[in-house]
Design goal:
This protein has a single domain, classed as Nuclear Transport Factor 2, Chain: A, CATH 3.10.450.50. Helices cover about 35% and strands about 40% of the residues. It is globular, with a radius of gyration of 14 Å.
């Protein structure tokens, strides 16, 4: 089932990169939550599906361009850990890169939660994994 979970996450990230918010969340469970409680920006907290669609739309619209680049997909039971880089270009042409790690929780083919961590190690520790464990599973 975990490879199916990775494919669900990849499809969602691809849709986010296209700005297709309906497709990005087509596999979201009705009680989906986006956990931005560790965020440093204006959207900090835990948000439901309707709220998070609006947040992603506003975030993407605030940049000339935006693209999420996943570095790897680490399968851990019902979770997929995705360290990556966000590439943004500001209205004045300024390039911005930010590295974050998302932990996606998927059960029965539905995305139940996506949690953002500022540091990869924090995401792994939340799942009680070490770097060595992560490399063994990926």
């Amino acid at each position: 089932m975990s490879q199916e979970n990775v494919e669900i996450v990849k499809a969602s990230i691809d849709a986010i990169n296209r700005g297709d918010w309906d497709a990005a969340f087509q596999d979201a469970a009705p009680g989906f939550e986006q956990d931005f409680s560790r965020a440093l920006g204006p959207w900090r907290g835990v948000f439901g599906l309707d709220q998070v669609k609006r947040i992603w739309e506003e975030f993407a619209a605030s940049w000339e361009s935006f693209r999420a680049e996943p570095h790897e997909f680490i399968e851990v039971g019902d979770h997929v850990v995705v360290p990556g880089t966000g590439h943004m270009v500001g209205r004045d042409g300024i390039d911005v890169e930010v590295r974050v790690t998302f932990v996606w929780t998927i059960r029965n083919g539905a995305i139940e939660r996506s949690t953002m961590y500022q540091e990869r190690q924090d995401a792994l520790e939340a799942l009680e994994l070490s770097e060595q464990d992560a490399h063994a599973d990926s």
